[in-house]
Amino acid sequence: MLCRHILLPTAIVAVAVFGQSARAQEEQTSLPKLYGFCMDLPAVPNPSIPDQARLLKELGFDGAGYPLWFGEEMDKNLRALDEAGLELHLVHTTVNLDPAKAAYDPRMPEAIAKLKGRPVTVAVLIRGLPPGDPKGMDRAVEILRELGDVAAGSDLRISIYHHVNDWTESLLFALEVVKKVDRPNVGVNFNLCHWLKVDGDKDYRTVLRENAERIFAVTINGAQLGSNAWTNGLIQPLDRGDFDNRALLGVLRDIDYRGPVGLMCYGIPDDTREHLTRSMKTWKSWQTPRETNKQ
After folding, report:
1. N- or C-end of the chain: fewer Cβ atoms within 10 A?
2. Contact 65, 89 (CB under 8 A)
3. What's the whole-number average pLDDT of the chain?
4. Is the distance from CB of 118 to CB of 88 less than 8 angstroms?
5. pTM score, two decimals?
6. Residue 30 — very low, low, confident or very high, per pLDDT cuts 50/70/90?
7. Which of 144, 143, 265, 142 lies closest to 216, judged by CA?
């Protein structure tokens, strides 16, 4: 009986330690779902969604991101993705703050309703005024609350896509807007290439950690720090550039980001299959624990 009393706690401790170790290893090596984004732009004006979906699935991608479709085009393209076994993770559309123009396409509520049940985030690019123009704040808040309510009806979320030259080109400004909107399902994207172009002199880690609950979507790519060019600069396949994407993924784990990650491919001049294959090879290599820097 004495031995049983001694060994049992030891065994429990061993199991607990082993369990913690296994969990730590899983957290270290697991990756989010990866989807392809802007695979065809700007080279292919009328891309074949079925062909792209089959290619992404073949190469191991989990999903894709596209402009928000409407009407029969949406029905057709959703069928193509479903037939390929590929998820739709992001759709993007435009909001206009110019009071002389419609705020958004009147078909948007119907389109969002068709996305119910899918793991998709509705990203909005906010245009119509110069970057950060304070005259747009009240209108933007009103529109985003309205769209947030529409999206909530389908259990979806609205995310500001910060984009160079947009009213919300700066992620930091987009976060200010989201705080004023004050809706739980209205947040922001973290788009690496646009972050580097606009806010790259700041520490993204602090921003992500302080705003974790508002980060609804993430897009990454290989990028050359200090570059001002998109092609062969701020947007490259994952095997190129010197930005540390693995460190970024570590921060996303730290803040408990559970969404997918989009691979930004806009303007990459290489053959589509070739550069997507290279990026996927690099992505999969990140499953392996990173070697400790001994310097």
Report:
1. C
2. yes
3. 89
4. yes
5. 0.87
6. confident
7. 144
pLDDT, tens digit, 9 for 90 and up, residues 46-85: 678 999 999 999 999 999 999 999 999 999 999 999 999 9
- Give the span between the Cα atoms of 18 and 3, in whole angstroms: 22
Q: What's the CA angle centered on 20, arms 19 and 26, to 5 degrees?
A: 90
Q: How far does Cα 55 stand from its chain's mean position?
A: 20
Peptide bond before 50: cis, by omega within 30 degrees of 0? Answer: no
Domain boundaries, the chain: 32-285
Residue bearing tokens 């969604």: 49
Compute the C-alpha angle 252/172/152, nearest 5°.
70
- Which tokens sit at 48? 């074949």
CATH of domain 32-285: 3.20.20.150
Contact 28, 257 (CB under 8 A): no
- Non-local (6+) Cβ contacts of 293 within 8 A are none
pLDDT digits (tens, 9 = 90+) for 136-185: 999 999 999 999 999 999 999 999 999 999 999 999 999 999 999 999 99
The average pLDDT across 192-196 equals 98
Asked whether the beta carbons of 194 and 163 are under 8 A apart, the reply is: yes
